[in-house]
Structure formats: structure tokens, C-alpha cells
ATP-binding cassette domain-containing protein
Amino acid sequence: MQSTPAAALDQPVISLRGATASLGSRPVLRGVDLTVRRGEVVALLGANGSGKSTAVRSVVGQVPLSSGELSLFGTDLKQFRAWSRIGYVPQRTTAASGVPATVREVVSSGRLARTRFGLLRKADRAAVERALALVDMESHADVSVNALSGGQHQRVLIARALAVEPELLIMDEPMAGVDLANQEVLANALREQVKAGSTVLLVLHELGPLEPLISRAVVLRDGCVVHDGPPPKAVGQHALPGHDHVHPHAAHDAEPLRTGLLS
Ligand SMILES: Nc1ncnc2c1ncn2[C@@H]1O[C@H](COP(=O)(O)OP(=O)(O)OP(=O)(O)O)[C@@H](O)[C@H]1O
């Protein structure tokens, strides 16, 4: 990870203020405020279509805001160039690009943002090996990505994002379609990253094995933030799939907090 001047440590890593964005003619973000501070692990939750992916895609500059403000590491998006400080794992993709490539080659491609002229030096190669080890894929390093299972693809994509040694890791539904054994490997990899001081923003459908790592949850509904605080605990009947969540701190007569977390 790069060293950061002390003054910059106080700046939020992500500051999104009053963000609005549309896809086609559809308003998808309708005034979203999202702050992620250094060392936090923030889960972005909400029902299908509530705007979670759009929010993180706007954070990484893939969806332009129609209005509002976004700064990364204290720098306005328009001036921000330090993309190698951010590792991004998009939603539902595979590590295979159609071009024959090994696991190590795909993970190495994640390191290119840190290199000059695309040349991997010793430290770069070491970072690639560390990333492979974090997701427990060293033994598959020379295997073609075309021969991997869905869960292994996800591990390779996460290793590709980790190879850049990001200060901020953004992952969009990293556990989607991943079996339990692979989920455990990913949860361990994330735990190591958090221990090393990374800041993390995760889009999640349910907290699952990542729950112990989450410091704060932001819940979206119809493109608006409806909760920003402690992660909701799915308990009893509400832990069953299909149930809306009731927040444990809500007043007795309060409306249930419908996160869509488990729907
Ligand atoms: N290219 C597009 N053009 C128009 N509408 C879109 C486009 N992509 C997504 N949408 C719509 O924008 C809304 C928000 O989508 P988004 O993917 O951000 O939601 P999400 O909360 O991440 O959902 P999911 O949990 O299903 O991934 C959805 O209603 C979706 O149908």
C-alpha cells in the first residue's frame, strides 16, 4: 500500500453527497449520501433494483452523476487519477476473457496499474503471488481460467483486485453464486485485507459469513438511503429467505426496516 500524508488520513476515503444518476431515462440514484472512512468495512444493502450496483459504479467513475458530489481520498472525481489505490470487483463476471490465459496472468493484469510501461518487477510479482495465496489459488496459478468453477472465477477476480494492493477495495456481490467452501476462502481473504488496514465497500444481498467483518451498513431503497448505521441482524423467522428485515434497535411501533436483505 502507498504511504499517505497524515492530513489526508482524516479525509473520508469515499464521500458521495446528494448523488443522483439515471440509466437511460430511469432515475436510479435519487440523492444518495455515502461516506466511507479509512479502515471501515461498509456493506451496501437493499432489494434488487434499489441502486446498489449503480452507486458503486458511480463511485468508480463508470456511471456519471447527474448531480451531487463525489470525492475519493479527498480529491474531487474530476481531478482524481490515483486509480491504483482502488481495487474493484464488478458484479457477476468471469475471469475468462475469451483469450486463453492462466490464473496467474489474469491476476497479474490487476497489477499493471502499479507498473511503468506494463513491466512486472520483483515487487510486482511478489504482490501477485501474495494475492494468489490470499484466495488460496497458488496451486491453480498455471491453470487456464477457462477450466475454473464459478467460485474459483470469483476468487481469481478478487485476487486480480488485491494484486494492486488497494487501499480501498470495492466488491459488488462477491458471494453471489459462490458455494460455502469458496465463501469461507473469500471471507478469510477479506479478513486479511481488513487486518492489513484496507477500507472496504461491499455490495451484499445478505451478510452471510462476512457479517463479523462489517462495521456499518447502508441500506438503499428506490435509490435513496433508508438506513445508515449498525448492520442489521437477521434473527429468528426473519433470518429465513424471503423475509424483510426488522432492525433490532427499532422502536416497538416503528415500521419494520425493509432492507430487502433476504428477499
Ligand atoms: N442500462 C440500464 N438502463 C436502464 N435501467 C437500468 C440499466 N441497468 C440497470 N437498470 C435499472 O436500474 C435499477 C437499479 O439497478 P442496480 O443494478 O443499480 O440495482 P441493484 O440494487 O444493484 O440490484 P441487484 O441487487 O439486482 O443487482 C434497476 O431497476 C435496473 O433495472
